[in-house]
What we know:
Distance between the termini: 44 Å
Helix content: over 70%
Radius of gyration: 18 Å
Largest sheet: none
Amino acid sequence: xxxxxxxxxxxxxxxxxxxxxxxxxxxxxxxxxxxxxxxxxxxxxxxxxxxxxxxxxxxxxxxxxxxxxxxxxxxxxxxxxxxxxxxxxxxxxxxxxxxxxxxxxxxxxxxxxxxxxxxxxxxxxxxxxxxxxxxxxxxxxxxxxxxxxxxxxxxxxxxxxxxxxxxxxxxxxxxxxxxxxxxxxxxxxxxxxxxxxxxxxxxxxxxxxxxxxxxxxxxxxxxxxxxxx
Length: 229
């Protein structure tokens, strides 16, 4: 019975991990205005990089062995060098790897808003800009705004990975920034819907005392897909 429960738990974790990686990659591609299922102009190595970055985030959320994060951080760096990626992308893969590794080191003590800010910047900006660059798309103003919106969504909904509660003045400021960015980029009806969803997610979790990373991540993927689709 014990072995069955262990196997069942691992199976659930694997399924959750696959879904997390898939939706993370989907969100990045939508934000970059790249059609994941119909466009095949990206390199295979870039796709491997995306899988590694998304898996690193999943391991961090679930507090898995930090050695896996180290290995997954090295793979994109090696691929970017051997595939002769542009120099700026090689530096970017190194940067996102360093940030993800440092977050996993307890002695660094960056499981706070500083760590959340660095994580949000690197894990939103670098994958989206890499996809945009490698698919040879013109970097439009709307794509730049998409990146800004995604940074705020990372900050809002990965909050509980770094802090114990959502009720904080910094999150209010981030919601205001998010509102301003979507107002500059989307139609007013979508703006109202997105703001309502963010406030609803935060309100339910705070007032019902159900502040859980699972609900936050679910909100992150739903709101991100609605925003960029």
